[in-house]
Amino acid sequence: MRRADRLLQLIQILRRHRRPVTGDVMARELEVSLRTVYRDIATLTIEGVPIRGEAGVGYVLGEGYDLPPLMFTTDELEAVMLGLRWVARRGDKDLARAALDTVAKIGTVLPEKLRPFLFDAGLLVPPRMHHAPDRIDVAQFRAAIRDGRKATIAYRSEEGNETIRTIWPIAISYFDAQRLIIGWCELRTAFRSFRTDRMMAMEVLKDKYPERRKVLLKKWQEDVRRETGQPQLDVFM
């Protein structure tokens, strides 16, 4: 890897993480020595890149710094296109449309030589073979999550029992055949997951739930770890 490419990749590693990244982590990913990482960080700092931290503790990229939007590698473009194609097939109507709009926006600013890696990416997402249709609009849940608002749902369990519940939606988990709304259930006074295809009706309330969504999400993840012994999937930390 050329040094210029390595410096850009180092910045990308820092952008990817919200918490301090140690030199050892960066050295392993870049396949270079720890001394090289420290030297590259010093170079970037001299060039004005706002990197904070110290050896042995870790480094973070200061807020407000960004790379030009066209700094995509071919692997990054294929990853973007694969993700957007998945959303276009699996997301609700508004989310699917947003995925297509995003592809168009990225395509307009890409250099000509990179456009084939976006539009002609050879990574495909097949149609859903077993799809459980929803009776509710999942986009309303996405809005509730963004605003931190409670919602009421008419829910039918696997056994056919129907209940009315007030929940605090904090996340949506997308599976191939269905979607789950993750939230705090006031009826059960615990975190629960609700399949959207089992919801008979839903309404977003004006009331906001009393804790920040980020705090609730962390508590839910801790619950999952305690119950399963496994780290929770996902989330760009």
Q: Would you give an account of this structure?
A:
With 237 residues, the protein is an alpha+beta fold. The chain has three domains: 59 residues, Orthogonal Bundle (Arc Repressor Mutant, subunit A); 45 residues, no CATH class; 91 residues, SH3 type barrels, CATH 2.30.30. The chain is built from eight helices and seven strands. The strands form two sheets. It has a five-stranded antiparallel sheet with strand order 6-5-4-3-7. A two-stranded antiparallel ribbon has the order 1-2. Helix 2 packs across helix 3 and helix 4 packs antiparallel against helix 5. The longest helix is centred in the middle third of the chain and has 17 residues. It is globular and about 65 Å long. The protein starts with a helix and ends in a 9-residue tail after the last helix. The mean pLDDT is 88.
Q: Determine the CATH topology of the largest domain.
A: SH3 type barrels
**Which sequence of strands runs across the widest sheet?**
6-5-4-3-7
Count of DSSP strands? 7
User: Domains counted in the coordinates: how many?
Assistant: 3
What is shown here, in short?
With 237 residues, the chain is an alpha+beta fold. 42% of the residues lie in helices and 22% in strands.
